[in-house]
Amino acid sequence: MAIAADAAPRRRRNAKTGAIWRGIAGVVGLAVILEIVSRSGLVDPRFLPPFSEVLLRAITLWGDPVFRADVGNTLLTYLLGILISIVIAIPLGVVFGLFTPAYRAARAIIELLRPIPPVSLIPLVLLMLGAGLEMKLVVVVFAALWPIMFNTLYGVHDVDPYAKDMARSFGVSRFGVIRRIVIPSAAPFIVTGIRISSSIALIVVITVELIAGGAQGLGAFISRARASYADSLETYLSVLAATITAGLLGLLINLAIGWVERRYFGWDSTAKDGA
Amino acid sequence: MMTDTSTRALAAKAVRASREQSRWQRTLVSIAYFVIPLVVVIALWQLATTLPARPSPFFPPPLAIFENTWNLLFGSERAVQQVFAGELLQSLGRMALGYIIGAAWGVVIGTAMGLNRSARETVTPIVEFLRSIPATATLPLFIILLGGGDDMRVVFIAYGVSWFVLINTASGVGSIHKTMLDLGKVFRVSPVRRLFAIILPAALPKIFAGLRIASTAALLLAIVSEFMLATNGIGYMLIQAQGRFQLLNMWSWMIVLAIIGLLLNSLLEFIESKVLAWHRLSRAKI
To answer: Which pLDDT band holds residue A231 (cuts at 50, 70, 90)?
Structure first.
């Protein structure tokens, strides 16, 4: 009996370590193949520099203060953008979720604004605000607002009405119901919205930096590296290394939010689904 | 007897009439909810941009924008030709081609990943990393590798789109209940038929979720790719208008892009509702 009881967890652990080892093998295998293909001249090294050199460049880039400032700038814009979106979108979602007439009245406007591709705002906002932080924030907030707002709305609709009624009959004020019942029970939905918004926000931040001439940030770094002296291996290495760094940022942010979601909101079934 | 049936018929008629009336009322109310806020917002915007002595140059009056958009699109025979056979066709053509290639690639690789567990575990870290790279950040890379031409744009869109479809297909195929797959084997269904009659239909709801996100992404990627080194397309027109400080034209092209986004979303929703009707029905019964 006891043996059967702990055989199952062990098998699960084995499956998990197996997955990890296979993953490592996959990464190492790909790196080795890329290295061989490039070193042997099978593919022109101008198009595919040896993987080790790209990796080395991705590390040595951190010694460059300009690059560090650019990465810091991108992260700052991203964080501020998400914060502002949260501050705007959650109250809106709660109001729209609790008062259906308000949502119905706002719906026409929302349905017309939402399909506007955020990047199409860049030229206008760039003319209005210049290439600084405000310009980036306007575009990012416009893009990151919607998932948080709609997820809050769905979460508020999903609140158990009996819980609300019970709190009311125990003498909790209307605002108290929102604070103690509605927001906590909608929280898993809201976090899912923040996760979706977060990856959108990073894409938009880097896109804006890439397009807006004179902007700062990782996107601007890549754009400058490409334009500076074309067709040389040096530039190409920098572009590749900076692109990899952008991927690393995205991966770290995704992992962090996924961890928070599982750790603190794992009790909800919606968190597992993943949109 | 006679009176009884006639009263009943009358009652039924009255009920039907009142039901019809309330349905009419509901439609009217929902139309009002849609139209009134729009009219109010546009009226306020119009007033705010025409009343002040020195209106902001960045926010033209909405009526002027609508008129300008109409002129830009349908103003003259030449404009119609240039916009619909030129910019729109170019943009949408590249977008559609990139979308189709990316979606096909995503479904093929995603299905392979979903079916083969050890292959999935081997490539998962690589896939997770590559899809974490913001797709637009790879545009300079594509420009270096493929040049600034239209082929590059199609490949770039296909690359960016494929991740959404790939991830969703892999998770859709991977979560098919094993009993279903075994059933196919037990009944000696050929592998090809198993793929098209069991695996893909079962994963279709998830695949469609990916396709819908991917369509939004495709439009975004198409616009971004036209911001850099392009010679035609709506994104190019937008950036040209910015360079010449033509604010009315900028607003007009933005409206055109919003309409395309809206149409694209509705189209995908329509196709999804047709293709996945069986899925929703099966869910509704449970």
So the answer is: low
User: What crossing angle do the helices spanning B234-243 and B247-275 adopt, rounded to 10°?
Assistant: 160
| Cβ-based contacts of A207 with chain B (< 8 Å) | 134, 136-137, 224
State mean pLDDT over B69-87. 80
- How large is the ipTM? 0.83
Task: Give pLDDT, residue A10.
Answer: 61
Determine, for residues B58 and A124 on separate chains, whether the beta-carbon distance falls below 8 Å. yes
* CB count in 10 Å sphere of residue A192: 24
Query: A144 by DSSP, 3-state: which?
Result: helix
CA B246 to chain centre: 28
B223/A119 CB distance under 8 A: yes
Using 50, 70 and 90 to split pLDDT, how confident is the model at A225? confident
Give the CATH number of domain A64-273; options: 1.10.287.380, 1.20.1050.10, 3.40.50.150, 1.10.3720.10.
1.10.3720.10
Higher pLDDT, B150 or A269: B150
Tell me the C-alpha to C-alpha distance, in Å, between residue B102 and each of A84, A204, B156.
33, 21, 9
Q: Which of B36, B228, B257 sits opposite A116 (nearest CB)?
A: B257
Burial letters for B51-80: b for 16+ Cβ neighbours within 10 Å, e otherwise?
eeeeeeeeebbbebbeebbeebbeeeeeee
Domain ranges of chain A: 64-273
Indicate the residue type of B11: A
For residue A190, give the nearest of A151, A233, A143 by alpha carbon.
A151
Asked if A222 lies within 8 A of B265 by C-beta distance, the reply is no
Q: Which of A238, A137, A154 is nearest to A189 (CA)?
A: A154
- The neighbour count for residue B214, using CB atoms within 10 Å, is 24
First to last CA, chain B: 44
